[in-house]
Amino acid sequence: MSDPINIRAKAETFPLAQVFRISRGARTEAKVVTVYLTRAGFQGWGECVPYARYGETIDSVLAQVQSLPEGFDHDSLLDLLPAGAARNAVDCALWDLEAKAAGRPIIHLLGLPKPGPEITAYTLSLDTPEAMEKQAHKHRSRPLLKTKLGGEGDVARIEAVRKGAPDARIIVDANEGWTAEIYAELAPVLLRLGVEMVEQPLPAGQDDMLAEMTRPLPVCADESCHDRASLAGLKGKYDMVNIKLDKTGGLTEALALRSVARTAGYSVMVGCMVGTSLAMAPAVLVAQGVELTDLDGPLLLARDRDAALRYDDENVYPPTSQLWG
Length: 325
What we know:
The protein is α/β, with parallel strands linked by helices. Helix content is 31%, strand content 23%. An eight-stranded parallel β-sheet has the order 5-6-7-8-9-10-11-12.
């Protein structure tokens, strides 16, 4: 019988470099839960971001983590905890623990090819058109900008972003803030301005109209797509799925979702909550070769973990073993 796993979890707060706004509100800090798993002298760790939109709090996630029995593995975790933040941190910590115990990179344990850098989007916070033009101009050298939108005034915002960054590729995220009528009105305008995709325009659970509409601007499921079980409900509505480890409940399910989504004909985006490099590290593995990568969380922070991921003006690079995996 293998040694039992000791579980420790704690809440941590990382201040943001500036206020970050989406259609549902604003924040000035990232509140995360860090999980440490220890067995036979080896320790692995993982991070998650509890998300109120999905009924999660710091306390609820800590309680879920502490509810686990001593003996579990990646497969049993899928039954012990629901898809979500708590399972994500535990699953990623377990992969890190196993890699350290084996003395081998995690890609060897998973049978994955050596990862490389991926171009990542940089997110522009929802604001006035004037402020968003300044944000875009500051980051105009980046190849891919993701613009948060919220409904009224969105055309002016995108026009301002395009003016500030005339050469960048642009994707937009409505965070459930549109209606079907707004999509129909904005889609041709956004296409004219060079926007390539809109993320979650309609609220999850109220998105059936997408199947009945012409979608000239490709639509990506975020809040509507969590794990493999949610794919059936997306048929005919979405062109792309956004895989986030805090939604899938870890690296194990994220890799499985990527495979099944591709087989079902969806394009794939790999995204993140606002967290540290520890949260992004396993997601970089999922992002290899996908159509869009949005792993800019650490770029929005005032400070990050030690041995943080490397970023340049275009790319996010795979983690070193000093960080994770």
